[in-house]
Amino acid sequence: MVSNVNRKGAVGTFSESMGWLRENPALILVFLVGTVIVGFGSLIPFLGALFGILALYINGIAQLVARDELVGETPDIRGAAGEVLGRLLSLVGIWLISSVLIGVGFLFLIIPGIYLALRLSLAPAACVIDGENAFDSLSTSWEVAEGNLLKIFGLGLIVFGLVFAAMLVTTPVVFFAAGSETGMVVGLVAIVVLISAFAQPVVQMAYARIYVENREPGSNVADSGDDWAGA
């Protein structure tokens, strides 16, 4: 069990997660292949949700890589894949329950939905890192995220801003380079897939770090200090 992890703000958390991705480039390939499979799977009627489970799986792998990095161990992606496989049913349960709750929240205007999404965002990390079941993971996330809502929201803003900037820069290139409308569509899809392959593992490792640095081993009590850009 990981403990005694120093706290970082949204910027510091994002920066460290980017460093972990550079040290574990195999994650980019894992997410690249996974994103392509999930994308094509979503086009198949009635099977989109089944392919969506793959996203839960590879997200968990990234979170375990972050766990290993936090304790100074060399991440074992193959070993992490086996660990996450044993937690997959709980991850699916988290996904189903949180999707319903967040969906209901969005029905009552946008803010309740965003609030619920932030409070439940650390549940997968609790599941794969500490082996909690779906209900316990959601409960733990609710407690741990309470004092870190600004940090989690700030992390989302950072990622959104960088993704938007990347799309803003690359879209005109595709527009001028594409020889046809079909070529432009294919180019834009390729850009989205590539950006996702970099952004998603960073986000998931950041969630894992936020979870670990704030939960107390054995008690799941959050540190109440909310922050944005602390180092």
Architecture overview:
With 231 residues, the chain is mainly α. The chain is built from 10 helices and no strands. The two termini are 24 Å apart.
Structural class: mainly alpha
* Share in helix: over 70%
Which ranges are low-confidence, i.e. pLDDT below 50, for 5 or more consecutive residues? Answer: 219-231
Q: How many strands, what sense, and barrel or not for the largest sheet? A: none
N-C termini distance: 24 Å
Instruction: Tell me, briefly, the overall form.
Output: globular
Approximately what portion of the residues adopt beta-strand conformation?
under 5%
Average pLDDT, all residues = 85
Tell me the quaternary state: single chain
Radius of gyration: 18 Å
Provide a concise account of the structure shown:
The chain has 231 residues and is mainly alpha-helical.
Key attributes of the depicted protein:
76% helix; 10 helices; mainly alpha; 231 residues
SSE order and pairing:
Layout: H1 10-23, H2 26-41, H3 48-70, H4 77-85, H5 88-107, H6 110-120, H7 123-130, H8 134-145, H9 149-177, H10 181-214
Helix pairs in contact: 1-9, 1-10, 2-3, 2-10, 3-4, 3-7, 3-10, 5-6, 5-7, 5-8, 7-8, 9-10
